[in-house]
Amino acid sequence: MLSLAQQGISSGVFAAADNEMPDTPLLYYITDRQSFPGDEPTRRRHLLDKIAEAASVGIPYIQLREKDLPARDLESLANEAMRVICEAEKLATDRWPLTTALLINSRIDIALATGASGVHLPANDISPQEVRAAWQAWCGAGARELSPGNPLISISCHSLEEVLKAAVNQATLALFAPVFEKRDKTPTGLEALRQACRAEIPVLALGGVTLQNARSCLEAGAAGIAAIRLFQENDIADVVRKLRA
Asked: How far is 71 from 110, CA to CA, in rounded Å?
């Protein structure tokens, strides 16, 4: 039996071998309210301010990754996040349009209930096909008119095999991590990222990415950058300007 990598070569899930830097890199902010100081209401307020900041400068994707929250609290936070994103988009102009998609980590039900654009799937979670089936069943029943008919699906990948699988399963984005050193994980490195970026799916570099090393990820073929600290601990407008320069 052919390996998944061999199947990828023969079935066309590999893109051209020569990686090119994108003209405008995709940017993907992953939230972590617990990194903010203060009590829970204060951290929540800081997080919503950061989401509003990200939406106001046109960050294309925000993943609400607050996995410790009970379902009711997560739904409430997602509703507030949707509100601040919509408010930012109302301030947009024809000359400077804004579009930010909110993705909920793991929770399809909460994404649907709040009108979010889709979900992010951790590695070894359910498949994109299962997400779409649940999404279409919900929307077909008229349970939520605000939900888009076809969800955006990002998926965590830690190897070329997982990126190829994400491409075959028609995920929207692959988040490849950790590219650089992390305390508890061995980095994949730029060469592994370069190979992963040959798959026919947009691959975003994640894990230890900074303003200093982001260009090397884009030169390796990454379609963009995903990060928590890079966006959350800095002025997002400044980060966006430098990443898109």
From this structure: 8
Q: Which of 165, 205, 158 is nearest to 186 (CA)?
A: 158
Specify the DSSP class assigned to residue 103: E
Question: Two tokens at 116?
Answer: 């979010």
Identify the helix (H) or strand (E) that includes residue 156. Answer: strand 152-157
Token duo for residue 7: 């199947």
Share of the chain above pLDDT 90, in %: 75
Is the model's pLDDT at 5 over the cut of 70?
A: no
What would you measure as the largest C-alpha separation in the chain, in angstroms? 55
Residue 16, classed as helix, strand or coil, is coil
- Residue 232: predicted pLDDT: 96
Alpha-carbon span 46 to 33, nearest angstrom: 8
Distance CA 196, CA 210 (A): 20
Rounded Cα gap, residues 241 and 72, in angstroms: 36
Q: pLDDT of 113-160, one tens digit each?
A: 999 999 999 988 999 999 999 998 887 655 544 455 689 999 999 999
